[in-house]
Amino acid sequence: MSDDTQPETEATAPAEAAPVRAGISAARASLADVPPEPGAPKQDPILNATGVRRAFGGLVAVDVAHLEVQRGTITALIGPNGAGKTTFFNLLTGFDRPSRGEWVFDGRRADRMRSYQVARAGMVRTFQLTKALTRMTVMDNMLIGAGNQIGERFWAGLVPPLWKAQEAANRAKAMELLERFKLDRKRDDYAGELSGGQRKLLEMARALMLDPKMVMLDEPMAGVNPALKQSLLEHIKDLREDGMTVLFVEHDMDMVHEIADWVAVMAAGQLITEGTPDQISADRRVIDAYLGAHHDAAQH
Amino acid sequence: MDWHFVFSQALTQAIGPTMLVYALGAIGLNLQFGYTGLLNFGQAAFAAVGAYGLALAVVAFGLPFWWGILVGLACAVVLALLMGIPTLRLRADYLAIVTIAAAEIVRRLFRATVWSEHTGGSDGMRGFSDPFFALNPVPEDATWTFGFVSMESGRLTVDFGLFDLQYSHRDLWIMLIGWVLVAFFCVVLALLVHSPWGRVLKGIREDEEAVRSLGKNVFAYKMQALVIGGIIGAVAGFVFALSRANVQPDTFSTDFTFYFYVVLILGGAARIFGPVLGAALFWFLYNIFSQGLSQAITSGLIPSGAINQTQVGPLVFFLLGLGMVLLLIFRPQGILGNRRELMLDVR
């Protein structure tokens, strides 16, 4: 994935672009000229969605006219409760079917794909309520994540020599990831024995077993204690450094400020604005959306 | 009271033909329920279509015996597809509803008077097992003695002193085939559940959404588990039909399915040998209660005013039910299960 190099933009190569955080400056640079308005076109969108609508009976939960997600960036999807963020997320990842709308992920039409096909195409998600496979070991949780496994076919599964070599390679890769997420000493424990925060880490590590191009995190900070929050933030930043694109749903504005390169704001099912975190914090419409349109009228 | 007789009967049954039927049916169910988490409440129907597929092919259509076996297996596959296609994309409980209903439909169809000239209606069918017993290598009239093992006119007796095991030459042939099948399916299941394929099944049992998010076609895996478990159920049906040399629709009632569940939970779900141990123990307990109570009444150990012979049957089921409740309270993981695994907090 690291060959997904950003198109070089002329101006920005500031001093603070240390080699360890090359991804962040590339990401920020790629978004420098994007106007802060809903549906703004990006240089190199990995995800390009148009007219995405999901209605439950008469209730329109999602009605996003246009959204592009720039490759190699961390994009936050924020909005008040009931804005349709998670529904939109479920649509993009194939866990729900849109009433209409189409989107292209990494050059392929993805709106007709089923959830497992979306994952195979390189867009892997996590869940708001962590889904650890509790009565399986941490290592098995990791191994199940690996893609294209020969031994996952029924007849091949019966003949271990066909898949032992691949299994060993997957195991080595899983071990590397577990070390990175500091879960290596837990590898033989049941996932159900991990703490809530460790499950979050495991879920993210497991998603990386698929070598995703884009990682979709649904409220990654929900229910995580402050100590672990910092470590999770660093892991998310590392995804960008490894060339992955991240889209995450979040409530916590501090976190959005800290890690997001770009923010998309939803309210009442629609995308109301986009911009850098600074632009968004200053945007009247966002404050209105969170606090209600007439909040200062009440003060007068 | 004749303890020798009671123990001999119970132990003879504990590894005999009927126990093998329960073991096979529960092995199929173990793949579906134990490993994949599929609530198949219609395992009796898989046994029924296996048994009837064989019987109808041989008796009504005059096909050779081995074709009958193939027909029975094909029927099980078709039944699994019929049950699975509409339900496996839905929540787990829909499969439970459809399988329990389908099992009743299957039983009623075999019972129906409309085509009773072919199926025999509620009387069932016989006359399909002769080709099977024609292959029996155990001679009908053998007589010999070798240490504590003796054969008298085709009847084998293994005398252990405290008890003895006795089987007819037909039982021996069924048991030879049955134990080979049990061993074969245990090996296949062990290979499967320790493969990446089996890992996906266990993942589906834990959380199918998570598995889907990792790029696995959950529907296809569930269907494979349902079909393979159903095929093993049909094999249980073959052994059942052949050991009785007849098929009768009412033997495939929902009770049959629930005995498979009792066997599986008793032995330990998601354990390779759980169904085998569970079947042996279940059938041993059933027989020792039945024979024991019956003997106790005959010998006057239980006064004849308290219970009589006709009440033994229901009382045995009462005792087995009580045993099941106690098992679920004190050892919910079954005999071979892992308590630590079962007690994990599912958040």
From TrEMBL, chain A:
Identification of the protein by name: ABC transporter ATP-binding protein
Annotated spans, Disordered: 1-46
UniProt GO MF annotations: ATP binding
Keyword check for Transmembrane: no
Record domain ABC transporter: where: 47-293
Family matches, as SMART domains: AAA
Keywords carried by this UniProt record: ATP-binding, Nucleotide-binding, Transport
Pfam families in the cross-refs: ABC_tran, BCA_ABC_TP_C
UniProt biased composition (Low complexity): 8-19
InterPro entries assigned to the protein according to its UniProt record, in alphabetical order: AAA+_ATPase, ABC_AA/LPS_Transport, ABC_transporter-like_ATP-bd, ABC_transporter-like_CS, BCA_ABC_TP_C, P-loop_NTPase
Highest rank taxon of the organism: Bacteria
TrEMBL record, chain B:
CDD domains: TM_PBP1_LivM_like
Keywords (A to Z) from UniProt: Cell membrane, Membrane, Transmembrane, Transmembrane helix
Compartments where found: Cell membrane
Bilayer-spanning residue ranges: 6-31, 38-59, 65-85, 172-193, 223-246, 258-286, 312-330
Coiled coil: none
Membrane topology: Multi-pass membrane protein
One Pfam family here: BPD_transp_2
Major subcellular location class: membrane
Keyword Transmembrane helix: yes
Protein name stated in the entry: Branched-chain amino acid ABC transporter permease
Species per Swiss-Prot/TrEMBL record: Glycomyces niveus
Lineage: Bacteria, Bacillati, Actinomycetota, Actinomycetes, Glycomycetales
